[in-house]
Amino acid sequence: MPTPDLDAVVAAGRRAIADAADLDALREAEQAHLARRSPLGEVQRSLGGLDEQARRDLGRRVNQARTTLQAELAARRAELEAERDQALLEAERVDVTLPGRVPPRGAVHPVTRTTDEIVDIFIGLGYRVVEGPEVETDWYNFQALNIAPDHPARSMQDTLYIESGDGRAGELVLRTHTSPVQIRAMQEHGAPLYVIAPGRVYRSDSDATHTPMFHQVEGFMVDSDISFGHLKGVLTHFLQRIFRNDLAVRFRPSFFPFTEPSAEIDIQCVICNGSGKAAEGRGCRVCKASGWLEILGAGMIDPQVFKFVGYDPEQISGFAFGMGVERIAMLKYGIDDIRL
Hints:
Elements: H1 6-19, H2 23-34, H3 39-45, H4 52-91, H5 110-124, E1 128-129, E2 135-137, H6 138-141, E3 160-163, E4 169-174, H7 180-188, E5 193-202, E6 213-223, H8 228-242, E7 249-256, E8 259-268, E9 292-301, H9 303-308, E10 317-324, H10 325-333
Parallel strand pairs: 1-5
Antiparallel strand pairs: 2-4, 3-4, 5-6, 6-10, 7-8, 8-9, 9-10
């Protein structure tokens, strides 16, 4: 292909820059006439096929042409920016004789603020945020998490079922936890995986400590050699960061269908500082005088769950945990009724 004429290249570039009516058009002109794949770039690439003297002469002309176009580009950009700023000043001109506007007052919702704090702590530990659908299939919400159709754990979660297009109910649900994100993430990606999954969940329940829609955060770590010690270390660090550094944490054996072994994690009551007593000498009503508060559930991911997503449980291990955001927000901000 013949090399473009340098004088014609410069002339075309100057015309395009001068004709640019706004900053977007100017950016297009810059790409068309100064970028690596522009005609000027083609001339520059042709230097390699010339002898030394011709290469020196043409190289000097190419540099001069580029300098010329860049100078005209900068001058035209300054003109267009000035025009834009003037138009903005005209459009946003304020009549100072009018009475002032009182700005609306507001704040970030405690649940949103708490979710952001939780996510920020785990991002600092190298986790990434993953989200999933709120309308789930029964397979993702239950079966892939080792909860078979006749499993008694289903009765512990008051599920809201959705009719499918053919009028049948039972195949689609409003997710009862954010754990299906764990299944979806493991299906899509191989280990290692360090994931935090915040989101809304739904259960048919409503009282002072439950709402039909609430927020959970699911987290999991999957790698080739993860132990319960990693689980304890990560969650102790998280709880001390979200509440306070000297917070006491304990792990109690528990049961979840999708983890084995499983644990409930308690923290020292943040209201009575673990004493079990209120300021008036009576028993603390938040921790019911025990000095401890149940805060989240966790455990090592059950090998059966790994089999559902195609992982080899002999090669891969991991832990998972889940927590209710409202529960943590209520403790952080002293709210005693979730409906508030």
